[in-house]
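_Per-residue structure_
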Amino acid sequence: MGRTKRNDILLGYAHKMRRQPTEVEKRLWRSSSGAKLGDHKFRRQAILGPYIADFFCPQKYLVIEIDGDTHDAEADAIRDLAMAERGITVVRVTNEDVLTNMDDVLHFFLTELDGRADRWPHPNPSPEGEGLSK
């Protein structure tokens, strides 16, 4: 299958997944969208190479995956290795974790995010105007 055809399929699938998220994805998105999680911004169903990530923080190069009963551990390991080769870290939690222990899940994600260096400088200048020429 050609690269363009595969990309079109991925784009369509990611778009559908954003329109029809699982209940667990909805709950996590409500807690993390709009920079609610330590001012870190996320993309839902982000296309990264040949994969679609549940949640992706581009500034930290961190993927969050929510694993349900249908996840294949061997395929996940291959995917995680491919992400690592691109400098992207993947962290995983289960549907059950999100449903029953959201506070700890969010704390875990925030710890992972805060422990990673930014991939680029923060886009907003400081409120004090530091770095601006006078």
In short: The chain is about 45% helix and 20% strand. Residues 3-114 form a domain with the Endonuclease; Chain A fold (CATH 3.40.960.10). The helical segments are 3-19, 23-32, 73-85, 95-100, 102-114. Residues 3-19 form the longest helix (17 residues).
